[in-house]
């Protein structure tokens, strides 16, 4: 018994020492012992724990790297959505953001901003229970992410147990920390070098390598990839701290790494000046960034401002100017998309730009080629649009070959040889043949993609094989693949195990909600966001099919191009037949919840001003939209209602001058319940 107590004391002492050294090394960047001395401490702890397995706890440094493979990354619903940021690309955009913030708050409010670096990595949410790491999840689509707990635990800058300052009383029974996981540029280049030697596919950039690493099945490999994390938020803690700057300070006290390039600014002018300063540091940083994030500091003000569709009104990303590089245009190839769009692609001499090697760049359409007078053999100027997609922004004319000739667009589809057509009001060329193999492949890839039916394993390579063998032509045939199991197993390099895994993934996809299925259909202009709005408005696909175009147009943020595209899609008999077959296969074509009386506020336009006591600004906006209304930011003659809370701003006077109907919060709630 005495030996057991002695071992427990020694184990606790070693854990404390190791965690303290981890904090000094990875968080403070101030190590006080050598690597060999550190390794000796870890080995001593491992030996004691192996001799006393009943004393092993989840927060022990030896438990960072698990041995079990993660076979399935289970879905995790975020309690509070992980929103994406709206982007600004100019100083004028930033001043517009400041103006909108001021319009959304009572005039008496003092507004301060926190400026942080926008790290180019993968957003994660980490859940702590009673101070101990419980789970980690990816951002996913902002509402539902994937659990990556075993992989998050391997990252040394993520505390397994929070450091609780003795000077602060803060409830730690249930908190959620959000941060950005990234890979340092040096580690990324080293990883790609190793992959090149091993003959493996190279990662495009540090962000892709970080995101890909987080989804690996073996945490032992993840631990070798040297991922790091900057924490930027503790969500749902408004009662304890009142500002983002306090949030960042508290995260540091808990043992997280908070990016040091952060500043609290008194106004937008100071914030912009700091953004300019950060941009000059860009090349000297050991990690990739693509801008700065400007946040309203007050959490109370953040709540008043609320969110729009996918982004907060109280924060914005200020994107830095794109980096440039020069390359030689070797050729132009013409790709065919799932809707038949013909897109020119520049084939380039490889060049390194913003963390990745570029050998191809989109040219968008033939009009773009003609406008920039791009020719094969030209020396071209490359940029990464938003630091993500490479594009050609210009040509070095003084180095052009005098024998070069202008590009001529194709007259036939480069894949199937069918005629091409160009609609009068569009710049794109289209393949007329809906049975074109490239379109078939594109539709199938979209249908099976993660944001749609999420059929794991059914990617480009397999789809090409199945299309070539005549097994797939339309996406409903995916659900018939189970009838060809023996034939699939006989395909070279597949086999029973991988085919059964694929068939299980196909079966699992039948549980995808109506909004995902609607998006998967690939209706032109209907992205994931529009599909969600349509699925929350209509009870079923049948309601959507039979709905008049005016009703579709009445839905908030659904424009004419979307509504016309929907009607065109459902007027095609082949599409209706495919939908009927998908219904028979068991896919979900009905909404899970009944709609509210959608005619109550149909097409009514609302403006909100002042602080509401019973509803947050976001809750009020969501209720209006759910009932068919629209929410805009400024008063005009077309406004139907001004909802007035405490301390209304100048919108109140303007509404009175224009004789707009003004209602208080109580009257507003009564209107919602009619």
Describe the structure.
This protein has 24 helices and 24 strands. With 674 residues, the chain is an alpha+beta fold. The chain folds into six domains: 2-63, Helix hairpin bin (Helix Hairpins, Orthogonal Bundle); 87-319, DNA ligase/mRNA capping enzyme (D-amino Acid Aminotransferase, Chain A, domain 1); 324-430, Nucleic acid-binding proteins (OB fold (Dihydrolipoamide Acetyltransferase, E2P), Beta Barrel); 434-511, DNA polymerase, domain 1 (Orthogonal Bundle), CATH 1.10.150.20; 514-584, 5' to 3' exonuclease, C-terminal subdomain (DNA polymerase, domain 1, Orthogonal Bundle), CATH 1.10.150; 605-672, BRCT domain (Rossmann fold, 3-Layer(aba) Sandwich). The strands form six sheets. Strands 14, 15, 16, 17, 18, 19 and 20 form a seven-stranded antiparallel beta sheet that branches. The protein has a five-stranded mixed beta sheet with strand order 2-13-10-3-9. A four-stranded antiparallel beta sheet has the order 5-4-7-8. Strand 15 and strand 16 (356-362) form a beta hairpin. Helix 12 (437-448) crosses helix 13 (460-468). The longest helix has 26 residues, at 2-27. The radius of gyration is 28 Å and the shape is globular. Mean pLDDT is 86; it is low at 594-598.
């Amino acid at each position: 018994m005495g030996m057991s107590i002695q071992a427990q004391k020694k184990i606790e002492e070693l854990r404390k020492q190791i965690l303290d050294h981890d904090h000094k090394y990875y968080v403070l960047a101030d190590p006080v012992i050598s690597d060999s001395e550190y390794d000796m401490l870890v080995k001593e702890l491992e030996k004691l724990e192996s001799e006393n397995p009943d004393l092993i706890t989840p927060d022990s440094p030896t438990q960072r790297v698990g041995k079990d493979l993660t076979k399935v990354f289970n879905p995790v619903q975020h309690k509070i959505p992980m929103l994406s940021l709206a982007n600004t690309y100019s100083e004028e955009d930033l001043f517009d953001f400041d103006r909108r913030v001021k319009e959304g708050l009572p005039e008496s409010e003092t507004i301060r901003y926190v400026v942080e670096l926008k790290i180019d990595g993968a957003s994660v949410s980490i859940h702590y229970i009673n101070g101990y790491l419980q789970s980690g999840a990816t951002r996913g689509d902002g509402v539902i992410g994937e659990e990556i707990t075993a992989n998050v635990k391997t990252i040394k800058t993520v505390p397994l147990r929070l450091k609780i300052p003795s000077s602060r009383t803060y409830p730690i029974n249930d908190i959620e920390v959000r941060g950005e996981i990234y890979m340092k540029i040096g580690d990324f280049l080293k990883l790609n070098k190793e992959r090149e030697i091993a003959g493996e596919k190279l990662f495009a950039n540090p962000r892709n390598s970080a995101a890909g690493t987080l989804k690996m099945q073996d945490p032992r490999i993840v631990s070798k990839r040297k991922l790091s994390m900057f924490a930027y938020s503790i969500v749902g803690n408004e009662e304890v701290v009142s500002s983002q700057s306090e949030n960042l300070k508290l995260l540091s006290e808990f043992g997280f790494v908070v990016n040091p390039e952060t500043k609290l600014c008194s106004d937008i002018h100071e914030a912009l000046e700091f953004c300019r300063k950060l941009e000059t540091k860009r090349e000297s940083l050991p990690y990739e960034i693509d801008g700065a994030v400007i946040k309203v500091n007050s959490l109370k003000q953040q709540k008043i401002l609320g969110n729009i569709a996918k982004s907060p009104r109280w924060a914005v990303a200020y994107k830095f100017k794109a980096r440039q590089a020069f390359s030689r245009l070797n050729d132009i190839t013409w790709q065919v998309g799932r809707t038949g769009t013909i897109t020119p692609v520049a084939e380039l001499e490889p060049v390194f730009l913003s963390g990745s090697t570029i050998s191809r760049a989109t040219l968008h359409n033939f009009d773009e080629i003609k406008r920039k007078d791009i020719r094969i053999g030209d020396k071209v100027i490359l940029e990464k649009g938003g630091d993500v997609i490479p594009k050609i922004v210009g040509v070095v004319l003084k180095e052009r070959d005098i024998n070069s000739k202008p590009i001529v667009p194709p007259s036939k589809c480069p894949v199937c040889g069918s005629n091409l057509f160009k609609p009068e009001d569009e710049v794109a060329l289209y393949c007329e043949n809906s049975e074109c193999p490239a379109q078939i492949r594109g539709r199938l890839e979209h249908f099976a993609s993660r944001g749609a039916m999420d059929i794991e394993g059914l990617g480009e390579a397999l789809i090409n094989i199945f299309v070539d063998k005549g097994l797939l032509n339309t996406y409903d045939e995916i659900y018939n693949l189970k009838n060809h199991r023996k034939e699939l197993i006989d395909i070279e390099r597949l086999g029973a195990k991988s085919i059964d895994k694929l068939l299980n993934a196909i079966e699992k996809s039948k549980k995808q909600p109506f909004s995902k299925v609607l998006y998967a259909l690939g209706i032109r202009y209907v992205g994931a966001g529009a599909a969600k709005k349509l699925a929350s408005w209509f009870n079923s696909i049948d309601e959507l099919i039979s709905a008049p175009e005016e009703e579709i147009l009445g839905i908030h943020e659904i424009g004419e191009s979307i509504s016309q595209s929907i009607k065109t899609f459902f007027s095609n008999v082949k599409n209706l037949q495919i939908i009927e077959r998908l219904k028979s296969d068991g896919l979900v074509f009905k909404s899970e919840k009944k709609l509210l009386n959608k005619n109550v506020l149909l097409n009514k336009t609302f403006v909100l001003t002042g602080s509401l006591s019973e509803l947050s600004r976001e809750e009020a906006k969501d209720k209006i939209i759910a009932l068919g209304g629209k929410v805009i930011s400024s008063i005009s003659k077309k406004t139907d209602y001004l909802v007035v809370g405490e301390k209304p701003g100048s919108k109140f006077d303007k509404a009175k001058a224009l004789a707009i109907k003004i209602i208080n919060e109580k009257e507003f709630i009564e209107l919602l319940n009619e």
